[in-house]
Specification:
There is one protein chain. The protein is of the alpha/beta class and about 250 residues long. Helix content is about 40%, strand content about 15%. It is built from 11 helices and 8 strands. α5 runs parallel beside α7 and α7 packs across α8. The longest helix is centred in the last third of the chain and has 18 residues. It is globular, with a radius of gyration of 17 Å. One of its GO terms (molecular function) is triose-phosphate isomerase activity. It comes from Oncorhynchus tshawytscha (Chinook salmon). It catalyses: dihydroxyacetone phosphate = methylglyoxal + phosphate; D-glyceraldehyde 3-phosphate = dihydroxyacetone phosphate. It is an enzyme of class 5 (isomerase).
């Protein structure tokens, strides 16, 4: 089954109107592969700015949201608010949310359910830490994280799974193409066994972790790597090369 290549750019807590405006100009003027879906994850305060300035063919994602529509939750934003500013995606479960801010699998699952119920697409992030990989429990860790998402997903057509080994995020270390393919293949097998074969064949599983213009072509050539979630390089002109990795 043909899965549309998906490249997400996670801007994290970076940029201002001037620098992001320049990046947006670069993206809008670039020749991007029409067969690749592109989504940029902007800081919440710049979501409306990004949506107004980016070419409509480029999607925008919030980097987080909460599990209810509204209320006394200082500092949080809801899927309803995200949609209200014209944004249709959210990144959930990113390792920085898990390990810096202490978000649990259970909370992330609840957020995923609420976001999907309110019509947002979800970039659902999973991945193991270095000590877990060295202990040989990568598969156990990512299966447990994936299960918390799967238990909260009714419609998989709005979900992209992002495998991001924590040891490769912002470190300059990248999983080898073979390592990425191995985990993606095992993830797809887990989805086949625990959700359905149809979902396993159709769900896009993207890789994140120090993806660059230099590494993207070989990674993107792997059978079960359906795109990327890009951090640092998403703020640079080379993001265009990553979007065009399949050309």
């Amino acid at each position: 089954m043909s899965r549309k290549f998906f490249v997400g750019g996670n801007w994290k807590m970076n940029g201002d109107k001037a620098s992001l405006g320049e990046l947006i100009k670069t993206l809008n003027s670039a020749k991007l592969d029409p067969n690749t879906e592109v989504v940029c994850g902007a800081p919440s305060i710049y979501l409306e700015f990004a949506r107004a300035k980016l070419d409509p063919k480029i999607g925008v994602a919030a980097q987080n949201c909460y599990k209810v529509k509204g209320g006394a939750f200082t500092g949080e934003i809801s899927p309803a608010m995200i949609k209200d500013v014209g944004v249709h995606w959210v990144i959930l479960g990113h390792s920085e949310r898990r390990w810096v801010f202490g978000e649990t699998d259970a909370l992330i699952g609840q957020k995923c359910a609420h976001a999907l119920e309110n019509g947002l697409g979800v970039i659902a992030c999973i991945g193991e830490k270095l000590d877990e990989r060295e202990a040989g429990i990568t598969e156990k860790v990512i299966n447990a994280q994936t299960k918390h998402f799967a238990d909260n997903i009714k419609d998989w057509s709005k979900v992209v799974l992002a495998y991001e080994p924590v040891w490769a995020i912002g470190t300059g270390k990248t999983a080898s193409p073979a390592q990425a393919q191995d985990v993606h293949d095992k993830l797809r097998q887990w989805v086949k066994a625990n959700v359905s074969e149809a979902v396993a064949n159709s769900v896009r599983i993207i890789y994140g972790g120090s993806v660059t213009g230099g590494t993207c072509k070989e990674l993107g050539g792997m059978k079960d790597v359906d795109g990327f979630l890009v951090g640092g390089a998403a703020l640079k002109p080379e993001f265009v090369d990553i979007i065009n990795a399949k050309q």
